Amino acid sequence: MPLSPGLFRKIPLQILLIIPFVVQTVGAVAVVGYLSYRNGQKAVNDVATQLRNDISDRIKENLTDLVAIPFQSFENYDAALSQNRIDLNNGRDVEKFLWRQLPAFPLVAAAAFVTPNQEFFAGERQDDGEIVIRTSEIENNHTLTTYTVSPGGERREITNAGKPNFDPRNRPYYKIPVQKKQAVWAKLYPHITGKYLYIAAGKPIYTNSGALQGVWMTSLNLVMFGDFLSKLKIGKTGQSFILERSGEMIATSTGEKPFQYYPDKVVQLPEQRIERLKVVNSSNAITQKASQALLDQFRDFQNIQASHQLKFTVDGKNYFVRVDPFRDSKGIEWLVVVTIPEADFMNQINANTQTTILLCLATLILAILLGILTARRIIRPVERITTASEAIARGNLNQQVEVSSIVELGKLANVFNGMTRQLKDSLDALHLANEELEARVERRTGELRQEKERSEQLLLNILPAEIADRLMRTNESPAEHFEEATILFADIVGFTGISARIEPMQLVTGLNQIFSAFDQLTEKYGLEKIKTIGDAYMVVGGLPVSRADHADAIANMALDMHAYMQDVEHIFGESLQIRIGINTGPVIAGVIGIKKFIYDLWGDAVNVASRMESHGKPGYIQVTDATYHKLQNKYLLEPRGAIEVKGRGEMMTYWLLGRRV
């Protein structure tokens, strides 16, 4: 049954204020009490998420620094090569250099140079911190031999010698860089003692003729990654680990080794007793369950391409997990996993929830009492204003009400009291203001119209008319491809020296005179000036509106520019020469960005035109073969011959001498 509209007409305002207030307060407190528990749970998730994010970020920052070390060492090696401080053909020289480099890189386990003829020269850091030399040479039948080292870097005693015919070229740190012909990471490999796993980066070195001289190798001990993780404080009992996308472990904060060692296994080399450890086979239950949860979620570690967060349970306890991909440009593809037990946060959250509920109940009682008192104080001033309003409705504007001590109601009373006095004046002022506003709007409209015309004219001065019109109509001017256009670059010869000898204002005045003359030639031949940079002038023919004679127009302008510079020899107090380069080809033209518009060109044809100018001679106009074929029937051209052009190799160019009669 619908409620009658008159049901609430006789209810006093005091009741309407008190009852809804009490009902809303009770409801709010009940909701707060309920949400306090839910928010506690959310707080756990938020805090855990923040902690996981912070730890993951710290791990990735440190990993970024660690994996950059080998490539920083390569820069040192290359610098020494460029300064002729190393002779790569002298093995003793190379091993001594690498031995001296290791103190500068305290986190590097070994640094080596492998030659294409199977030789190996390295400096290696031992468990006790001592740095030794390890080599495999033709002289010792390629036996991998370890030497103690004198303070001067000379070999002393042999401490270890392996089997003959050690071939480092079969190692991934040699094969992969040589295959990719650049500095990259290789696969993990076991140390020859079988005690550690190393990750190495390699960089191939080539002669000027392109022959392979050898490969620099710098390796890091995975123990270092585990030590770094173990020092991180992850909540109270959190853990972290790093794995490859194959599922094999790189390092873990628990101290567990990323490999399994089988001391009784019959092998030819000690390093063959090592087998990589899959994270799902970890002896640590948290590591094992977290990795299994990731596989259950994503089916394969290869499918994890972004950061993700999830939960898993071990022995009835909830754990939060965050996984982040970590990669670099040299081949690293790892996953960083951080796990935090929910129990690390719940005790404090539960205590906070109970305190919140008690405070909510106390607030409820106090709010009800204050609501009753507040409603009584509001009712009385409202009743006085209501009575006076009824009198005004009857036409009696001489009404005054008592000002309440409540600030808002007191303001309302003051406004009400002034209303009757200001009503007529306000109406008269409103009419006057309307008239003035209409006149002001009309004047402003005229000003805006003039400003718009000036803006359009300014736009036409800096952009081609077609481009400016498109920008004004659609507010966009996408870049366009022109299949063929001819570009001219011109440069005043010796301008840098001139600018150092004369006053700046004289310099600018002279440039303005020259470029103004060039601008007139641009208008004369219907060409498009692109820009000036210092003493350089750039113009193009064949756009933004295509034309068949673009090459002829550019050639005519170039000849006139050359003639003008011969007539104006003493504009700076000395004779001037200009160097001009021309090329024809496809370009992209348009306006890019949304501020400070400029119409510009891009493309290889533009670069070649610039090279024609920079590779030209003072007083000459140099054109490419493409432009030559456009001009040969109407203009006099002389072959310059093939010249070496930066970035292009040899190019056939021509001198433009004049017009055919």
In short:
This protein is an alpha+beta fold and 661 residues long. Helix content is 44%, strand content 25%.
Describe this structure in words.
The protein is an alpha+beta fold and 661 residues long. Among the domains are: 72-219, PAS domain (Beta-Lactamase); 475-659, Alpha-Beta Plaits. The chain contains 13 helices and 24 strands. It has helices at residues 13-82, 91-101, 172-180, 222-230, 285-298, 343-393, 407-462, 465-474, 495-501, 504-524, 550-567, 604-614, 625-631, and strands spanning 110-114, 120-125, 131-136, 145-149, 155-161, 184-185, 189-190, 197-206, 212-221, 239-244, 249-252, 259-261, 274-276, 308-314, 317-327, 333-341, 480-492, 528-533, 536-541, 578-591, 599-602, 621-624, 635-645, 649-659. The strands form four sheets. Strands 1, 2, 3, 4, 5, 6, 7, 8 and 9 form a nine-stranded antiparallel sheet that branches. Strands 17, 18, 19, 20, 21, 22, 23 and 24 form an eight-stranded mixed sheet that branches. Helix 1 (13-82) crosses helix 6 and helix 10 packs antiparallel against helix 11. The longest helix is centred in the first third of the chain and has 70 residues, at 13-82. The protein is flat. The protein starts with 12 loop residues before the first helix and ends with a strand.
